Amino acid sequence: MPPYEVQSVALIEIGSRKQFFVDDYLIESMSDCTTVLNRAEKVEHNPIVRPEHPWEGNDVGMGHVMWDDEQGLFTMRYSTTKWAVSQGDGEVIVEGEGAGRTCLATSRDGIHWEKPVVGEVEFEGSKDNNILPPEWLMGYTYRDPNATDQAKRYRGHVRTGDTKSPGMTFDLYFSPDFKTWTPYEHNPIIDTSPRIGRWGPTDFMGWDPIRRKYAVHMENCLHRRAPLGKRLIGRSESDDGIEWSEPETILLPDRLDPSDTEFYDLMVSAYEGMYVGLLWIFSTTNMTHHPEAVFSRDGIHYRRDYRRPFIERGSNPADFDSVSLYADAPIVHGGQIFTYYTGRNWRSPETLMELGDRSKGAIGLAVTRLDGFVSVDGTKGRATDVPPGRGQIAEYSELVTRSFGFTGSELHLNVQAALQQWGAGPCEIRVEVLEPNHAYIDGYEFDDADPITTDSIDHLASWKGSSDLSRFEGKTIKLRFYFKNAKLYSFRFR
Description:
Elements: E1 19-20, E2 27-31, E3 33-37, E4 41-42, E5 59-68, E6 73-88, E7 91-107, E8 140-143, E9 154-160, E10 169-175, E11 182-183, E12 190-191, E13 202-208, E14 213-219, E15 233-238, E16 248-251, E17 261-271, E18 274-283, E19 288-296, E20 302-303, E21 324-327, E22 331-333, E23 336-344, H1 349-355, E24 361-369, E25 374-378, E26 397-401, E27 411-417, E28 428-434, E29 456-460, E30 478-484, E31 486-493
Antiparallel strand pairs: 1-31, 2-26, 3-25, 4-24, 5-6, 6-7, 8-9, 9-10, 10-11, 10-12, 13-14, 14-15, 15-16, 17-18, 18-19, 19-20, 21-23, 22-23, 23-24, 25-31, 26-30, 27-29, 27-31, 28-30
């Protein structure tokens, strides 16, 4: 067979970026396999932060989680409230004592949390607590990677206005240390009252490294309802985080959603060149919330191929997250993906009154394997038309990519071997390198490929002991994955 000599410029250039299977962007064909959403798994000791002290009331909720490289520490700012319910003038009245109080929790691993003594705020005659002083706090915060002035290393936003206001405003603040905040001299940077009306639940994504804009997502129905009479999700952008575009709707319920489905908020992370969003699904009939994983390549068009909870609500009514589960944007750390969330076993004032002391509000954590949002799951194949001399291939599922060009000299795979509870046999994955017209390349066929049989987030593919693919760099190829009893999450070239 002649050496591979194709020199054509690829229509798709993937460089050295990770490639996922959340859509068919790079998938040409699949046989005896399917794409699967992998739900995040709750840690066994959930909730990870719960009300324990008098100053925490009977409810704690997610605020802001951030990894500090300098200290090697996660920090969490969380809200505390003591809910009180009363009946008056034919309606249930809910009051939150201590609402607006914020506390600090810290963690070395992001899983086990402590509540250190801050010693700044007095509570019932003592400063022996983890309450943060009000001057340290901003409502919507993020680290600004574009900051050249260290005094503006962090940005925070404070909102004014509520459900009874005709609109709302957002003020911008800067901080060097997440404690001392200086207001922007021309606040407010956003005023929704003249034309837009009020926003619903809002999340400042901060700097979007893909579209290279600052971004904010919100419930974009002006709280007066919008097309279809439902809550929708909008996006606004800014070049500098000061002058913002008018929000445009990017997600709304469709004919495949139950009629009572509305969208409450969208928490977005830029993940390896893609957008991973956790869409808060609100069922207005049973008053529940859960997050649905959605994916986008441009930040505007989101795919909702997996319409099931990314994190399931608690199945027991006594579970702290049995009714409402408000998930934050995923955080990647140490080869895992952490999704923190606020869980409650109530949503309406009436339910809160009915539960009384049995009402719960706490912070949970669900963990996902690195790149583990969606996998291609394969079992033994059922091929009947097998080329001569390649009969063993009938035992494998297959995935063939579209043609692409790449940068690098090695192929790395994220693969999970079959779990025993699947009732599956041994895992095996082999990779063929093909010409754009599917022609085989000598030395990179099925029998040349060294089998991968174990679980790893970073397997190195090889052929007869060699992993060197530098001869294909700058050329156009396809990959054919043969696999059985395995989950394939991602691949990349390095």
